[in-house]
Structure formats: C-alpha cells, structure tokens
Amino acid sequence: MVFTVAIVGRPNVGKSTFFNRLLEQRKAIVDDVSGVTRDRQYGVTEWIGKSFNVIDTGGFVANTSDIFETEIRKQVKIAIEEANAIIFMVDVTTGITDLDQSVADLLRRSTKPVFLCVNKVDNSERMLEATEFYSLGFEKIFFVSSISGSGTGEILDAVAELITPEASEDALEKNDLPKFAIIGQPNVGKSSLLNALVGQERTIVSDIAGTTRDTIHTHYNMFQKEFILIDTAGIRRKTKVNEDLEFYSVIRAIRAMDEADVCLLLLDASSGITAQDLNIFSLAVKKGKGIVVLVNKWDLIEKETNSARDYEKRLKEKLAPFTDVPIIFISVKEKTRIMKAMEVALEVYENKTQKVQTSKLNDIMLKAVEAYHAPVVRGNAVTIKYVTQLPTHVPSFAFFTNYPDDIRAPYKNYLENQLRQNFKFTGVPIRIFFRKK
Ligand code: GDP
Ligand code: GDP
C-alpha cells in the first residue's frame, strides 16, 4: 500500500504553496487543478528514495467562517480516516486561531501521526513568534517557509522515516494475476459494474484479503478469464463519512490505482468527462498504469449514425496528448459490451507486461531512425545506434545516442509514435530515455 500524507489546515495558511514546493522541488508528478484554485491537489513525490502520495485538502470558497469550520472539520476527518499521516499546517503571522484549535482537537484524538507545520517562518523574528505553537501540544513540530523552501527537507525526512520499503515499492506487487481497478466519479456505475461482474455468484467468486483495509480484492474467474478486481466502490457506502463524496472518490481512486495494473476509468455517457476525471486520468498516465476508458450508460444516449465515433473523437481531444487508449461504450444496465470491456482490459495488461525482443526492436526502430533523423543541434549530427527495453514495470525504452541531451520533445514523440505503430502498447503509457552510448 502506498503511503499517503494529507495536508490539512484552514485556508490561507499556505497549504497549496507548500504542496507545490514539496512536489516541484522533488521533480515530482503534480496534478495541479489550475484555474479553480480551491480544488484539491494530489500527487506523488519521492524523498530519499521513498515514494508517497501527497494530498492537499484544499479549501473552500465560502463567505462565512461557519461554513469554513464545518467543511474543514469534514476534510480533517476524512484525512484522518484515509491518510497514513497528516501534515497540519498553521500560519505564524496569524498566531493560533479558534479554527486551528478546533482542528488540533480533532487531530489529537486520532492515532495517526501528525506533523505540525508552522508556515511562513521566513525569518528569525518569526521563528521566535512560532514557538507559541508548542502550546497546541504536538510532539512533531516543524518551522517552514514554503515560499523559500526552508524547513521542508526536515519535514520530509520525518515523513520518510515512517515509510517502510514495502510501502514505497508497492507498485511491484507480487501476485501475478492482472489487477484491475474500477475508478470514476460517484454515480457513474462502478458498483453496478462490479455487481454485474461478480454479482452473487459465490461459486465462482472468492474474496481474498486486500492489502489494505479499504480495498477489497475479488478474484474473478469465468469464461476463461482470470483477474483481480480491486473494489473501493462498495466500501464507500458502508462508511459513515460520506458527506464529501468527491474528495472521497479522489482518494479512493488514487488508492485503487496504486494497487492496479490497469485502471478502468468509468464515465457517465450523459455527463461526459469532467475535470476531475481528467486529473485522475493524467495521474494514472504519470503513474504508468494501463488505462481503459469505459463510457457507461450508453443506453441513455440517443443514437444517430456515428454517435460513438463522434463521441470518441471528442473524448480523445480531451485526453490528449495520451490518446492511444481504448474507449468502449457500455451499458451496465443492459449488460452490453461488459465482457468486451474486460477482454480489452486484459489486452492492455498484455500490452503492458510484454517484453519486446531486442533484435526486433532494433530492426524496426533503427529503420524509423533512418527514415527520419533527429535534427542536427549546434552542428552535431545526432545518431541513434541501439535501442533496448528496460526491465521495468512501466514499458521503458533506452535509446543509445552520441548526444542524449540534444534530442528534443518532438523527436521523442516521433519515436514514441513509431513504437506505438509497430508494437502493441494501446492503453499503456510508455517511457523513453536517451543514454550516452
Ligand atoms: P492555502 O489556502 O492554505 O492553500 O494557502 P496558499 O498556499 O494559497 O497561500 C496563502 C497565501 O500565503 C499566499 O498569498 C501565499 O503566497 C502566502 N504564503 C504561503 N507560504 C508562505 C510563506 O512561507 N511565507 C509567506 N510570507 N507567505 C506565504
Ligand atoms: P457508483 O457510485 O459509481 O458505484 O454508481 P452506481 O453503480 O451506484 O450507479 C449509479 C446509478 O446509475 C444507479 O442508479 C444505477 O442503477 C445507474 N446505472 C449504472 N449503470 C447504468 C447504465 O448502464 N445505464 C443506466 N441507465 N443507468 C445505470
């Protein structure tokens, strides 16, 4: 299970500044929901060789402090339930406020590790003022300036100390059956799909314990198809905290995604793809997960000639630049194309786990290089002499060249397209590296 840290605190203490610093400083993968500043941000970062998820619980645009308080308490409760550790952020320039006290009370009652992070400690004068926060009673207290980055290393060290090598390596999970996670917004039909697949048929279904308390792994074995379904949808129903479904679904989706080989991103045909779906999609791409997009509730759409084709075209425009993704139109209600969806998910798994033969890879890719050479940079003719697939979980290719730093994005895209055209990587993010030969 991937270790997850949530950043909580009232608005304006600097949570998102801190989040951005953490992630950008570490060259991490950030999904910044730009524009809507109050949206949540989540990403995965690495520090001294340990990887973990970071979630900025964001804030709310609300006019009264009452709404703030209720909403923030809700977020803190969810963070306590879902995260492995909490960074509680406060602001030295305002001192301890009532809202800080209220959040502190909630956090003191939890058993999760809490890192009190006093932000905006930009100078030594503020360092003195910051000592007031010791009175909140947290053992682990850090003084940071998110704007300059000072102090962030210490807090990352402390977080990293809690992360076991297993949690950091989660992605390399041992079980060799394909693992699929059904993810998507509330109400798109995740539970319905799961029920349609595994239903009540106990004879063919056996539950095996998931790696975490909040995902259930169900072994599916029917019609000569065998895989593990990672279910988070059903559990959401059972929990008491269900006020903030959207936040909930995001955390759950990330969790399920981390455990999966292939993500089945479910959309509601009648509402299309949302900004949040796109964030989840790009996070899956960055995490190197296989992806299949399932457009559910296709029964609700008035069909004209080409409507699936047009729909697919519009969807791909939104998914760009990663468009080599299967899109399947299903109706869980009418049970149409569900098996097709599972077949495609299995294909994507095959694509993701294939190892291309080195000789074949070189035959084809060196021809592609011959057909279109990398542009000359600073008078240097860039040559590529050899290609190999690396032994990684995300299909990765190393191209050996005389000038690795002189190959630009367009050429890299060309090589990726050639790989996609000549080998089957549909639904699979691939990585390309240039190495000095
Ligand atoms: P959030 O609502 O908690 O996410 O807070 P933001 O990250 O949006 O920050 C609120 C304001 O505090 C912004 O104007 C930031 O530039 C400012 N801020 C954030 N961190 C620091 C810091 O370390 N020092 C100072 N002086 N200002 C900061
Ligand atoms: P979840 O929140 O993603 O788990 O969504 P549910 O499985 O609970 O489904 C939400 C609603 O959509 C329910 O009322 C379902 O009956 C309905 N639904 C699910 N799949 C379909 C479908 O293919 N067509 C139609 N018309 N409704 C569906």
UniProtKB/TrEMBL annotation:
Positions that bind GTP 2: 184-191, 231-235, 296-299
Record-linked CDD domains: EngA1, EngA2
GO biological-process terms attached to the record: ribosome biogenesis
Keyword Heme: no
Location of the EngA-type G domain: 3-167, 178-353
Pfam families: KH_dom-like, MMR_HSR1
Cited function: GTPase that plays an essential role in the late steps of ribosome biogenesis.
Annotated NCBIfam families: GTPase_EngA, small_GTP
Family statement: Belongs to the TRAFAC class TrmE-Era-EngA-EngB-Septin-like GTPase superfamily. EngA (Der) GTPase family.
Assembly description: Associates with the 50S ribosomal subunit.
Name this polypeptide is given: GTPase Der
